[in-house]
Amino acid sequence: MIEARFSTEEEIIAALKSGQIVGIPTDTVYGLAADPLDSNALKNLSEVKGRDMNQPIAVLFSELSKLDSYIENIDQLRRIELFWPGALTAIVRAKRGRLVSPLVTDQLTIGIRKPANEAAIRILERMGGFLAVTSANRHDQKPAKTAQEVTDIFDDRIPVFDGGVSLHGVASTVVDFTGNIPRLLRQGVIEFEEVVTTWTTN
């Protein structure tokens, strides 16, 4: 185990603005975060994690309105907004060409989520309301649930903000809302049936 020196919130913000990858807490698991408008930072994030460059990275947001310029039909998402903040990642249609990197969007869809974590929300707000975030782990390995686990996985190369133990310790539920019927891509904290019921009745 590496004895970690965790970063302050100010240091995390400075690192993000300088194009670095950072570790931040969320309500599900710890995440590796980068500026979604910085292609080089996103490439580094994928390389560090050992992730396929063609696999888009989800975006965490502080308020849904912050993504109005990037989502095709934001009003439609009001139907499932009760799940946010929370452990639901929604795959929705993106406005073409608005996010500069294909590592965030394939220019057709984008994954979005509002985390139920106060520290994460503060950091998101200070970065303009959104960040590209993927779970803090090597590809196909167990994600970190604490700041110490992030450091153990990635050594001390990545600044990490210690927000305590993640509430759930399980990844978010991922649902594709781009078709007529919601489609489950990954079962996580929230039950898919609950999402479908809410979507169809609102």
Notes on the protein architecture:
This protein is an alpha+beta fold. It has a single domain, classed as DHBP synthase, CATH 3.90.870. Helices cover 23% and strands 17% of the residues. It has five helices and eight strands. Strands 1-2-6-3-5-4-7-8 form an eight-stranded mixed β-sheet, sandwiched between helices. The longest helix is centred in the N-terminal third of the chain and has 11 residues. The mean pLDDT is 90.
Which helices and strands, and how do they pair?
Elements: H1 9-17, E1 22-24, E2 31-34, H2 39-49, E3 59-61, E4 88-93, E5 109-113, H3 118-126, E6 130-135, H4 147-154, E7 173-176, E8 183-186, H5 192-201
Parallel strand pairs: 3-5, 4-7
Antiparallel strand pairs: 1-2, 2-6, 3-6, 4-5, 7-8
CATH superfamily heading: DHBP synthase
Are there runs of 5+ residues with pLDDT below 50, and where? none
Tally of extended strands? Answer: 8
| CATH class identity | Alpha Beta
End-to-end distance: 49 Å
The helical percent reads 10-25%
Estimated radius of gyration? 16 Å
Q: What proportion of the residues form beta strands (DSSP E)?
A: 15-25%
Q: What is the averaged pLDDT score?
A: 90
Structural class: alpha+beta
Q: How many discrete structural domains?
A: 1
Shape: globular
Number of discrete helical segments: 5
Query: What composes the largest sheet?
Result: 8 strands, mixed
Reading the helices and strands in chain order gives HEEHEEEHEHEEH
Annotated CATH architecture: Alpha-Beta Complex
Strand arrangement within the widest β-sheet reads 1-2-6-3-5-4-7-8
What is the CATH T-level topology? DHBP synthase
